[in-house]
Amino acid sequence: MSNVQAKPRSDAWKTALTVLQEVEPPSVPSGAHAMTVVVAYPPGDPGAPPHRHSGPAFGYVLEGEMVFELEGEPERVVRAGETFWEPGGDVIHYQDGNNRDDIPVRFVVTMLCEPGKPMLTLVDDDELAQRSNRRAPRRS
Q1: Which of 26, 62, 78, 106 has the most crowded CB, counting CB atoms within 10 A?
Q2: What digits encode the pLDDT tens for the residues 68-92?
Q3: Domain segments of the chain: what residues?
Q4: How far apart are CA 95 and CA 77, in angstroms?
């Protein structure tokens, strides 16, 4: 018989979960793998050039403010503590830059990547011009 008493179980798990985002993503390619990255841009940085991802991506802004723009949607600002997602595939991701010129932005993204394809593919100027009618009007 042991003199060590069992610690009582915590009930904190019952209220520890906060749902930040629920979406119905497109189908995930067979054999896809998940990748989670942290992206950090200095103040005023425009971020990655227009690109697309091979599969859906789900993100959360850790600090600062990100300008987020997907093809067909108006650009918007995603602030620390807020989420974003994109379907991947053929959709162009126009902006992911820092909205502020006085503080950095950091965000975490989990992507489901199609096997044999890069996680990020840049979109060239010719394709941007061909698809310009799909881009939502920009804020002034």
Answers
A1: 78
A2: 999 999 999 999 999 999 999 999 9
A3: 39-124
A4: 10
